[in-house]
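Fold this: Cyclic nucleotide-binding domain-containing protein
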Amino acid sequence: AALSAWRAFDKGSKSAKMGEDSNAESHMTLDVFKTFIGCRSDVWDEIFQRPEVVQKALAVPPGSRSEADKAELEKLLRIIPVFRDVGEEVLDQLCEHVEYRTVKAKTNVFVQGEEAAALCVLMSGSVTVFIQSLEGSKVELTTLNPPDEFGQFNLILPESADRSSLETYQADTPSELLVITKEVFDRLLKKRFYDEWKQRYGVLKASGVFDGWSVEKISHVARLSRKLCFGRGDTLVQQGEPSDHLMFIVKGVCRVMKYPDVQAQIERKIAECDKTLNRIMSKYCFHHLLLETATKPADPKFMTLAEQKRAELEYTRAGLVMQLDHIKRQNRITHKQPGRILDGDTSKALEVGMLMPPGICGEMGVLDPAKDQALGSVVADTMVETLALHRIAFQTFDVTPDLIERIRRKGRIIYPDDEDIMRRLKLQEEEKVIAKDIVDDLLPNKTSSGRDLPGANW
């Protein structure tokens, strides 16, 4: 019955193609037709999937591919950013020698500390990048998606001992990879990626953060960095949220915005007081036997300089805590009204600075990993390209006080107090109201008829 139905369907399809009124049923696939007639699909229809044309071309061993296979692979490589700018001869050689791998989920492609002997481009699936911290824990750095590439900078180094992977790359899902072996890489792509490596080195060197570092150390940082691109209006760093990356701006311009958040600023001041008090208590801490034998002043009101400073800090801290409690109570009982500037109102932001190359952003993740909250938002004003260094990868370096101080000086945006921001925003709103009133006064009366307006007789 199914065979006769298929013959009738095939005959009807041919007659429909010959006529002018061709309908959608004439283009049914076999699976759709089986469902249409209520026929159950075979078991192997769900197990075996027909490979795509590109997969068939990749399955042909390198060196044995036909011109048709290479034509299909050329279409694929042209849409991958890492191969988009290569010449015709290089692209033809890549189509001939590129290899194809499938990876199961939870399989390590490269392992940290082991040699990475290929350039890989992700075709499908996802790959997570891990790094082992100094404490021995495995920390996730980022997740790669098609068509991201990895492993290219390991192949540039001449010695196999130096080509060990700096991170672990693990497939999250079943993934497909395009693989360029080291022999093909050295012959076709090494110079291109070496130039990119030098460019990254130049950006890091020009930033001033790594002054005094050797070429080998800065080159190591360049290997760990990743290129991140942002479109106009994208947010690189969000105020009040943690930032995982220290970003070095390569191209483009960014605006630094800040909205008033008095509560967060008071909390930071309290944390600074606690830090100073702990330092004083640690510095002027004595054994109890020494305190018993210490010379006590005749005047009980006498205080040492350290005790006086400690008392002043405790008094300041108590005042800040009372102010913070008052703001929290006010935020609980007061609802935000349209157009009113309240603490933490992200719709009311003030531009406080600009960032251009060789500026940096996201430095709070390095300067204060415990708190790690951005003081302002960084928004791309144009197309922006950055080199991003994860804060965990940064901790694997020789982090000295001089390095931290250089980063602090490099993040040269001076954020005004939140009270000052609120005052300036209110002034801007008042200026807008005044400008609107002036324009309304210059315009004719809205109640006038059209015949009374200038040019009404035209």
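Confidence is low (pLDDT under 50) at residues 12-26, 335-346. The first helix runs from residue 2 to 18.
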